[in-house]
Fold:
Amino acid sequence: MTVPVFRFDNSYARELPGFYVAWQPDRVPAPRLLYLNRSLAEELGLDAVALAGPQGASIFAGNLLPEGAEPIAQVYAGHQFGGFVAQLGDGRALVLGEVLDRQGRRRDLAFKGSGRTPFSRGGDGKAALGPMLREVLMGEAMHALGVPTTRALAVAATGEQVLREQALPGAVLTRVAASHIRVGTFEFFAARGEHERVRQLAEYTIARHDPQLRGEPGRFLALLDAVVQRQAALLAQWMNLGFIHGVMNTDNVALSGETIDYGPCAFLEAYDPQAVFSSIDHGGRYAFGRQPQIMRWNLTRFAECLLPLLAEEPQHAVELAREVLGRFEPRYRARLLQAQRARLGLRGADADVDVDADVDAQDGALADDWLALLHRQQVDFTLGWRRLADAAQGHEAPLLALFTDAQEPLAWLARWRARCAREDALGWGAGVAAEQARADAMRRVSPRIIPRHHRVEAALDAASEQGELEPFTRLLEALRRPFDDDPGLDWFAEPAPRELTACYRTFCGT
Ligand code: AMP
Ligand code: MG
Structure:
């Protein structure tokens, strides 16, 4: 049997001694491979066939280290629910190393649930199967929706029980990420006044994520700007799709701009800016509608770490950082409006079409009023947008059926039609073919299938309680086709019952 080959090149371990502890995963009694992401394996240049065999189970459970892996537990700090914790770190995770994928991109391979480390504090270092499969579902859904995200490569059962409120089957997740550098990684060293280490980490981050800035005189401020830009774009996508991260602590903010750490996350069902699903978010700090301002807050913590690198004179450094942080909001708004325009069927969404400020304000108001309507009538967010595409072709009934008071949306719909007609009059064309083109374009940006609470929970329960993976696999396949109109997927598009959403709570996965 050939041993699967991973082509590791571990720059973090090599270039940043003192930023981690070398550590080994626990051995587990009975590895069993439950999930392997074959297309991702191939993207990474791995032999998916070899990995699907018994060696894959040993590798992904942590019993057999592939050659070249140098497992490390990274140290980091973080603001959790607003309070600073000076030392967190990988308490149940290990970065195995970095692999250059087929396109030459450097990607971290990391375990989650592989045992205690020096950073475990009171925890057992383990993970339960349900939350690890949840990370697969959410990450793959986000990926299929075009959102930057870490992704799951594999899940292996360990044959152990982990003790939570009850005993649950244990598992190890293998995660692929652009990197695991977080705002919290910077905070750890900044809080200790280790400015040389902050500089070293900043240089490393630039080399890895913004290599065009290497050696530039203003590179640290430019790094801040690049991170602000990535997060503004990411948050616009989250808000546009109804994604609630649930635990936006600074240790869960990746400098790569990927969504990371799928714990108590969920997608909105009925539209509600105040929606909170996390069982630990009592104050609603991370409610859906607060996410952009929380990200701005998190980025401010990042900027604070960089201050000594930005200018000699502290006040000047603060002014520079402020100016760059101030770009978050306008960038976020511009990205969101661009995405909403596309969902409204307006070609003004195209980057090469110049739209003036007046039209911007009008389209922004059109989108806001639409959301207010959805909110007032507790309309399903995903289906509301999706069925707007039917309305673009003259089929209003399916959309109106989502409203308790079907009169209320009529005035808005008339306004929307007038806006579309104005655009058509600019030479985009009209008639049946144009309507079809508009509706098709809308269906390419407004998903039909998202990870719905009831489907996710049922799939995870079946896997965790009965060892039955079929519902998980079927749901995963549906989530990979979010924009597909296939009637065979109708079941996955159905909203969860109101009663369930009203008391839906997701747990941190610890
Ligand atoms: P999270 O909320 O999953 O981002 O985790 C916050 C911190 O708690 C991280 O430092 C984790 O490594 C740590 N942690 C979470 N669960 C466990 C566990 N079961 N054992 C040890 N550490 C954990
Ligand atoms: Mg985390």
Observations:
- The longest strand covers residues 151-163.
